[in-house]
Design a protein that fits this description.
Number of strands: 15
Largest sheet: 4 strands, antiparallel
InterPro entries: SET_dom, SETD3_SETD6_MTase
Distance between the termini: 45 Å
Number of helices: 18
Shape: globular
Oligomer: single chain
Radius of gyration: 26 Å
Number of domains: 3
CATH superfamily of the largest domain: set domain protein methyltransferase, domain 1
Protein name: SET domain
CATH class of the largest domain: Alpha Beta
Strand content: 5-15%
CATH architecture of the largest domain: Alpha-Beta Complex
Structural class: alpha+beta
Helix content: 40-55%
GO molecular function: protein-lysine N-methyltransferase activity
CATH topology of the largest domain: set domain protein methyltransferase, domain 1
Organism: Arabidopsis suecica (Swedish thale-cress)
Strand order of the largest sheet: 4-7-12-11
């Protein structure tokens, strides 16, 4: 998780920025900042009236600082090679950095010249947000044949109970149900607001006849309690939340409920292991729980394995972690908000904390969403395999979090552990890299340096690398061999009639194709790298 930033606006108009030392990637980010000519502490003078040139320079400095301090683990790991010439690491990071800059610009100040400067800076940032690279802007293609009657009743119920929305629920081609902006939404506009009273949380368990029984079960979590409550409440015709339960699918089609044919299609993939391990864990939990629920409060016909799996899929795919005014983080179901689909180019990225003043949960947009466009929410920085296993879909576009983790034996060397070392390594599609030159090859620098170290090359300056090209060959051949084996495990592409295949089989096929594409790009980069190194061995640079 990205560490919080220390931000201070002095009376003189100085904006003081500082990267906290408790940031989990402090040393890596310090190095990135240094490469940009920045320190972990920076000061921007925004007093007086600034020319357009000085304003642009201030924004550029803020943006460089903001991009780096907002990098997450994957972005830090690949950052040295993924950063574009324009300084952009990813769409997610760019939106986060720009949103962060807006959040630190003071709303008010004493001097009018300073007010004008801050307003100009705010306007410049909003202009950049609307131009974020890669952000999709397209009208949602509504499927008119699907009448969202249950969904409309839920929205009406929500509005009767204090829900405020600028979204319309519709069946959208290629997505299923989704939320469309009913008016133009600009940065900071609240697309959806839901009062605490309309949120399903553990409080309903504490006030039910279940709690006296559940609280006696050793080690039971609040998440498990509210899940068990939901399994019964779904069938309560007098439930306050009946309009919400009526809109839920009978089958979620997450990876947890894949059929035999889909599971067979996943043979040789990393996803297969993920699904089987997750399902085995759920089955073990169910087998432990059921003997403890032998009470009329828990009707056996409602607590079957099938119903338990359905409830788990519901919470995996629809619940959100919400921070309440008491500071407690609770797993909740949020009626209406569940219709917001995920995207790698989301509009809503900052949510999950109840507003104390209004006792409601707000979903503000972090980039514009025009009327008629689908409004997307970020479910989190997840790989496509995770999204398929627990949410039941594959995101559109190239997901930068589709990484292949690598297991290596720890090098037995006391000197290898430095503040810049990584304990885990990973690879992803090399088309996401901006550097395919010698010593980079589109592959992540932390991995290459680890493998160079494993082959005895302790120092990785450019001079050292040029003098040890045979080590480069060994590193690339090592990676090539590993991924050759992975490609072999995937087997040949299937000739299944995709058009007539079941949905879970189609998803399994697409997931396998994505993994094959990533591995293929890595193998291509290794081959190109080996050829490049061989050329320099034969004809060394002067």
């Amino acid at each position: 998780m990205v560490g919080a930033l220390n931000i201070i606006m002095s009376e003189t108009g100085d904006l003081c920025l500082e990267l906290p030392k408790d940031d989990p990637f402090y040393h890596h980010k310090q190095k990135f900042l240094s490469c940009k000519g920045l320190g972990v502490k920076e000061t921007l003078n925004l007093s007086g009236s600034l020319s357009q040139q000085l304003l642009n320079a201030a924004l550029e400095k803020l943006l460089q600082f903001g991009r780096i301090v907002n990098l997450d683990k994957v972005e830090v790991y690949f950052g040295e090679d993924a950063c574009t010439p324009a300084g952009i690491y990813s769409v997610r990071n760019e939106i986060s950095a720009l949103s962060w800059i807006l959040s630190l610009i003071p709303v008010s100040c004493k001097m009018q010249t300073q007010v004008d400067t801050l307003e100009a800076l705010r306007a410049a940032v909003k202009s950049r947000i609307s131009e974020v690279v890669g952000a999709e802007k397209e009208k949602a293609r509504v499927v008119d044949s699907y009448r969202c009657e249950k969904e409309s009743r839920l929205v009406e119920w929500g509005q009767d109970n204090g829900v405020k929305t600028k979204l319309q629920i519709a069946q959208i081609d290629g997505y299923g149900r989704g939320a469309i902006a009913s008016e133009d939404l600009k940065f900071g506009d609240v697309a959806l607001e839901i009062p605490i009273s309309s949120i399903i949380s553990e409080e309903y368990v504490y006030n039910s006849d279940m709690y006296p029984i559940l609280e006696k079960i050793d080690g039971i979590t609040s998440e498990t309690m509210v899940l068990l409550w939901t399994m019964r409440e779904k069938h309560n015709l007098d439930s306050k939340f009946k309009p919400y339960f009526d809109t839920l699918q009978e089958n979620f089609c997450t990876g947890l409920s894949f059929g035999v044919n889909a599971i067979m299609e996943l043979d040789g993939t990393l996803l297969l292991d993920e699904i089987m391990q997750a399902k085995e864990l759920l089955r073990d939990r169910y087998d432990e729980l059921i003997p403890l629920l032998s009470n009329p409060v828990f009707p056996p016909e409602l607590y079957t394995w099938e119903n338990y799996l359905w409830a788990c899929e519901l919470y995996y795919s629809n619940s959100m972690q919400i921070k309440f005014p008491d500071g407690k983080l609770k797993t909740c179901l949020i009626p209406v908000a569940g219709f917001l689909n995920h995207s790698i180019y989301p509009h809503i990225v900052k949510y999950g904390k109840v507003c104390v003043e209004t006792s409601s949960l707000k979903f503000p947009v972090s980039r514009p969403c025009n009327k008629g466009e689908q409004c997307f929410l970020s479910y989190g920085n997840y790989s496509s395999s995770h999204l398929l296993t627990f949410y039941g879909f594959l995101p559109k576009g190239d997901n930068p979090y589709d990484v292949i983790p690598l297991d290596f034996d720890v090098i037995d060397d006391e000197d290898i552990e430095t503040e810049f070392s990584w304990t885990t390594h990973m690879l992803r599609g090399t088309w996401l890299s901006s550097n395919h030159n010698i010593f980079h090859y589109g592959l992540p620098t932390p991995l290459l340096n680890y493998l160079r170290k494993a082959q005895g090359l302790d120092h990785h300056s450019e001079t050292d690398l040029w003098e040890n090209l045979e080590v480069e060959m060994g590193v690339l051949e090592n990676i090539q061999s590993t991924f050759d084996d992975m490609m072999q495990n995937l087997g040949d592409a299937d000739s299944i009639d995709r058009e007539n295949a079941d949905r879970d089989v189609k998803l399994a096929m697409e997931s396998k194709e994505r993994q094959r594409k990533i591995i293929s790009s890595i193998l291509d980069s290794c081959s190109a790298g080996i050829k490049l190194v061989q050329e320099f061995i034969i004809n060394p640079p002067v």
